Amino acid sequence: MTRTPLAAALPTAQIEVGPGVDPASLDHALARLRALPGPCRVDSLTVRLTRTHHPALPDGILADASAVSEGRTVRARAVAKCPRASVDTLAARLVTALARPR
Length: 102
Fold this sequence. Notes:
Layout: H1 6-9, E1 12-17, H2 25-34, E2 44-51, E3 61-69, E4 72-80, H3 83-99
Parallel strand pairs: 1-2
Antiparallel strand pairs: 2-3, 3-4
Helix pairs in contact: 2-3
């Protein structure tokens, strides 16, 4: 049995927060998105958290992600009232998108 070092199993993750988003949300976002329970291995992940300026949800947080898995790029978005809920919804959508066949 061969073991893969934990650091090698984790994707390269880049998470950015925009103006008005609490930087403390980075810890939750990093932990949640690095532990995606998907069938595909994620090689790299880019996530952006920004405030929405839509009148229906003026205090909403938009989470936008691009993941590269086995040479395929997958995108997902989620909007919620707080960064934590936005990241959790985004993670669920990424898992669904990664599970779709090519």
